[in-house]
Amino acid sequence: MKMLRRLTLPLALLAAPAFAQTTPSPYDTVDPFIGTGGEGHTFPGAVAPFGMVQLSPDTDTTCTIRDCYDHAAGYRYDDTTIQGFSHTHFSGAGHSDLGDFLVMPVAGDTVALEPGDPKKPGTGYRQHFDHQTEIAQPGYYAVTLTDSKVRAEMTAGTRVGVHRYTFPAGQAAHLVLDLRPSLYNYPGKVLWSSIRLWPDGTITGTRQTRGWAPDRKLYFAMKFSAPLADHAFLDTEKHVAYKGFQGPGRGQDDLAEKAGRQLVARLDFGRLAQPLEVRVAISSVDEAGAMNNLTAEQGDFDAIRAKTKAAWQKALGAVEIAADAPMRTTMYTALYHSLIAPSVSSDADGRWRGPDNAVHKADFTVHSTFSLWDTFRAEHPLLTLVQPEETNTDFVKSLVASQRVSPFGILPVWQFQGRETWTMIGYHAVPVIADAYMKGIKGFDAKAALDAMVASATYGPYGDLKDYMALGYVPIDREPEAASKTVEYAFDDWTIAQMARKMGETDIADRFEKRSLNWRNSFDAETGFLRARKSDGSFRTPFDPTAINYGSDYTEGNAWQYSWFMPHDEGGLIRLLGGDDATVKKLDAMFEFDNSKLDYSHAEDIAGLIGQYIHGNEPSHHVAYIYNYAGHPWRTQERLKQIVDSQYKPTPDGLSGNDDLGQMSAWMFFTGLGFYPVAPGSNQYVIGRPFVERAVLNLPGGKHFTVRADHLSAANHYVGRVLLNGKPLAKGYVTDAQVRAGGELRFVMQATPNKAWATAPADRPYSLSGYGAE
After folding, report:
1. Whole-number Å distance between alpha carbons of 718 and 752
2. Domain spanning 32-311: CATH 3.40.640.10
3. Is beta strand 743-750 parallel, antiparallel or unpaired with respect to 704-710?
4. Would I find Disulfide bond among this entry's keywords (predicted)?
5. pTM score, whole prediction
């Protein structure tokens, strides 16, 4: 590396990593507690990179539909009790579900089989905990349960979670296995469940639920390091007066198998001389799949932990970062959060459950948990840089395979464990596929992928695409959130055109490029805002650009945020707004808007406000970079500092909004490096300003791309010059090809803005209709 070229060092040091050994490793720098408080909705538990199992504590699953938002990930940092440890969780979602197969250790002679009231200690198996006893690292979590003094440890492999419980000496050891609780709870969510004890001591079971995803089936297989001494399987729908187990004894509930809608199990192990290890595998296919997954991933707690730690060290080692300690923690934790989803969905034998609720077989690793409305923006573009090509290929193949077996013939919208939730808008699997293809990622059938993209973009019943195709916009009198849908469809259309043109499919490219200009049909040049039109062509009135109402003109936002969403054609927007100065004036008005008289408490996802810029939700994420398109890149630099300083910190409440399966984190990671993918599919990263002194991207293929920031300090937050491989870079962007080729992007920072750099129209980022008068 270039930093060593002028040094004379012993060979042992020349072979060392780029950054000093006194600096904590990337693995040791990650703090999984970031985002577990506030609005982040992350979990601190154990997960492998893209792992099927997310084994984590749940502090409350007793919430109902109306109040589960704060506990969307199961754990909330300001809670004081733990209900148990379950095997499936979302990282930062704006909606709750999962929390499958909850396990809780109990010590002593009395075992309660109800969780109890968190406000009334001792009323159930729930227990207190203290943050001082917690440890959270990638792939590992531990805590001491205050009431029982049990030390609980968790680790996870790809399809296996492993618990280790150290019980107090002389105390009888028990586990409660509760199949009733879920995140996003409501009466009747569990449609059916079953549990079975096999002669060798293995326990298997299943649960069928209707929650965020309808009719979801999940299976488990569980083995123990010590033999069962006794057990009871209860259906509490039939045993409503059952309060718990008092001492030894057998009866009608010690059956080897039980089925019902409200099952809970008591598992007794007697007094143990060694910690109890519990290996659990899951499968969305069947119990045999779960048992096979358990067999396929061998090893005790320490072996699985070591293997997963090595996997995280490799994944996090894709980037080497030098920065002050808080920023380094923020950056590596952001990278960690970006590597949790999409999660593995297929079993070790290749079987997977599709959106048709049928079982299929694949010759690649199928992934699910696609939060595409969020993650197409920065999360997936980041993965193309920090993950091997085959991983990104598997993502694309998973999307296309899902479309192939979809009852509707369209790509996933918001999918987990193969089940579609129909949440959010757009057909944003399209830009994920197009961006990968445009960057040269191969290994998938491009023709089949393009066919799937076109099929999704032309399925008339979905989101009123029928009217969009006929009128050039989505009419608000026929479809809610019409203004947002119009511009999001238009961007997705442009990415289809990009991929089709590169493939030589000119007719498809021309057709969808024309459609991509439909954003203009919902833009009102008179007011300067995106607005919803009715089917007769008129704009809906009355109009208030600050109004946020779900089911109205916009999706989780208002006219202020959505009026900037044409990432492929910001030059066209600038013309409609009256030019560069008018655009900058409007951007400033957005960031400096006085919100003191507005109340957005009814809108859950509206967090991280800076005027009318809402960083806690995705429609705003590219907006600070639009100053670059208007020839004022130094204003982007100012706004980025404002955003980073106010929206991120290395604390449990360090994320201003839901991490949304890694999108909030990916925004921070890209921005910290000094550039951002405003328009995935353009193969350009718009330059902002770096927040790290140095970073080395260890790219797929063995090449390295280094970012350096000379003279970076709190005072020097403006970019004075940019050099690419030692030569001045006049452009306000760097291309994906330039990054993948390896080299060095050097920023020279200063205290005053450089108002000449990257301001000429020819030096601005890509815009479909260019800059200046048409």
Report:
1. 6
2. no
3. parallel
4. no
5. 0.95
